[in-house]
Design brief:
This protein is an alpha/beta fold. Helices cover about 35% and strands about 25% of the residues. The strands form two sheets. The protein has a six-stranded parallel sheet with strand order 7-6-5-9-8-10, sandwiched between helices. Strands 1-4-2-3 form a four-stranded mixed sheet. It is elongated and about 55 Å long.
């Protein structure tokens, strides 16, 4: 996987565990000169100097003079997540988010709010891509992303393990008047369709962010941020 951008690269190069997954570092001479302290001896052997136009050809976005080729992102299995025993877990479930910028922004907010994990389906959902990594500013490496085959099966298993499931809809209970204590899974729906019918039916609670009649809905990442921080605030 190719990841790019100064902030993301700094996040990776300052983490010994992530550095082990680095295969090649493509950078221009200017970036290397200005940021030489980022590269320890073992990393220097992986550096390949490129001209700026060559970096442009490698990246699909603004690279800021550095691109890192690293091992593909390693997802957490559902069973791995469940064995991490601690009370009052907070989990996000994304019901087929398609925009990588939304996904990246949601990841960054989740990490900022100390959410334990994000559960996503393995189809009709954007996965961890270079754009997601860059948008999250590397926060994707600070949280478990749990990949599952079926969201409804995952919801059943979460309930069997003591979780309450909160779905986000347009006509539910005011999100500020809900009890979020205990093990909580908050479901964020698709950008256009919201949460799917069966997922909605399997939720224990349905919550809504009241908005002006002049607006149809909030962006998925914005809605997620509002709900995440209300959930965190109410649990203190």
């Amino acid at each position: 996987m190719l990841v790019y951008g100064k902030n993301v690269s700094e996040r990776i190069l300052k983490d010994e565990n992530l550095c082990e997954n680095v295969k090649t570092i493509y950078t221009d001479a200017v970036f290397l000169q200005k940021n030489s302290s980022l590269f320890n001896d073992s990393l220097k052997s992986k550096i390949k100097i490129k001209r700026n136009y060559e970096l442009d050809n490698l990246a699909n976005g603004v690279h800021q003079g550095i691109i890192i080729d690293m091992e593909d992102y390693q997802y957490t299995s559902f069973s791995q997540f469940l064995v991490k025993k601690n009370s009052n877990k907070t989990v996000l479930m994304l019901d087929h988010i398609l925009d990588p910028h939304n996904f990246g922004a949601i990841i960054r907010t989740a990490v900022a709010a100390s959410i334990d994990a994000i559960i996503i389906p393995n189809n009709r959902q954007v996965l961890v891509t270079p754009t997601v990594v860059k948008t999250s500013v590397g926060a994707v490496f600070d949280i478990d992303i749990v990949l599952v085959t079926n969201l409804n099966t995952a919801i059943k298993d979460l309930k069997d393990n003591g979780f309450w499931i909160y779905g986000t809809v347009m006509d539910g209970e005011d999100y500020t008047k809900v009890d979020y204590n205990g093990n909580v899974c908050l479901v964020i729906g698709n950008e256009e369709k919201g949460i799917s019918k069966l997922v909605k039916e399997n939720c224990d609670f349905l919550v809504t962010i009241p908005i002006s009649s002049k607006i149809d809905s909030l962006n998925a990442s914005v809605a997620a941020g509002v709900l995440i921080y209300e959930m965190v605030r109410s649990r203190k």
